[in-house]
Amino acid sequence: MSDDTALLELRRQDHHGSPQALYQLATALVIRHELEEAFVLHRRAAEAGLANAQIECARMLLYGVGCEADAELASAWLLRAEHAGSPIASYFLALVALGGFALPRDGRINERLLRAIRANYPPALRAAAIHFGRKPGEVDQVRCIQMLELAAGHGDAVAARLLAERLARGEGCARQPLAARDIWSQLQAIGIGALPEITVPEYAAEGTHTGALSLEEVLVPVTPKRQSLRPRVMTIDGLLSADECRLLVANAESRLQRSQTVDPETGLPLAMQIRTSSDAALDPILEDVALRSVQLRMASAAGVPLSHAEHLTVLRYEPGQEYRPHRDYRPPGSIERDCPQAGNRLRTICVYLNEVEAGGETHFPVSGLKVAPRPGRAVIFDNLQSDGTPDVDSLHAGLPVERGVKWLATLWLRQAPYRNF
Ligand SMILES: O=C(O)CCC(=O)C(=O)O
Ligand SMILES: [Fe+2]
């Protein structure tokens, strides 16, 4: 059956009005980017009580896909689906609540994630594995490996990649190079290659509870090291764990595009010689609990609510590639085009994700500071002065990579909310 015939058949079934038929037609329409009609159909199926449609309807409302974004209404649909017993609805409620904006960030986050873990929902298993993987206890490490295995067994390729890295290096388990190789060859058969070398020697384990699922640990305050006063630059070693760095690279790899910068003349994005890397801006709709937890950790280390964050951008610099001296605050014209009520870019947090053989430091010419890329290390700097006006001293550059590849995650944080949940 061709796509169109299949769609016609779904449309014919829809006339019988069964929620299942509506849901299937809506799903087919999402794939064809006919989003407004898809939303209406999902809502009809949701009103008829179909939990899967309630979840899809909520997801569309969260991200404003095919409809006006409305996180409160989305949460109401998720609560209905959860009430009907859906563990996936619980998972999405945990995801929303993590932001602490549309739903309170309370103990129910862990209960909800646990419900999704018990149902073997792979995104929940993956998020929990990464969470336990940060804890130093032996029981936590065992749990991390078990959950990665379970998620991988349910077809989660990202979890399989994280597992292979841990088995190959003996992280949280005995070294099992043969088992790792076996996973890598299975992944290669579906076109997925190896991850870059990422090891994070030590990171702050304070504030973590052994054996307990406690996602709120991402908010435990960390003490940054001041590196320069003018401009204000700080660093935190080991902010992200090796699993978290690998997660970001794995999510960005297939979405990389030539980087662009905002043209100061027109305010429009443009590929320019000043910035020669590739990058992937992770669309919030791709966000799962694991990715959201990483962003929450980054925003909170920078002292800004996650709701103020623009899309997380993951950059890859190959040898010779660089980001020449620039400032991150945006010219007035470009803010008007992109959420003016959020104001300008108050602060930036970048986290280096892998080991770079040579080059690739972040350079602040005004103070002469050079921060070396080390996996898991964050560099945080202010782009505005305390009165909100641009700080010209915030000039900085990503120096050319001399050998190897540099992966970096950047979160630009605005003065006021940019996201709606
Ligand atoms: O690559 C770097 O070290 C700096 C990146 C940067 O300036 C940015 O992403 O805004
Ligand atoms: Fe920058």
Automatic annotation (TrEMBL):
| The Fe2OG dioxygenase domain, residue ranges | 308-415
Q: Name one Pfam family in it.
A: 2OG-FeII_Oxy_3
Q: What is this protein called?
A: 2OG-Fe(II) oxygenase
Q: Which SUPFAM superfamilies match?
A: HCP-like (SSF81901)
Reported cofactor(s): L-ascorbate
Q: Does the keyword Endoplasmic reticulum apply?
A: yes
Record keywords, A-Z: Dioxygenase, Endoplasmic reticulum, Glycoprotein, Iron, Metal-binding, Oxidoreductase, Vitamin C
**Sorted alphabetically, which InterPro entries does this protein's record hold?**
Oxoglu/Fe-dep_dioxygenase_dom, P4HA-like, Pro_4_hyd_alph, Pro_4_hyd_alph_FE2OG_OXY, Sel1-like, TPR-like_helical_dom_sf
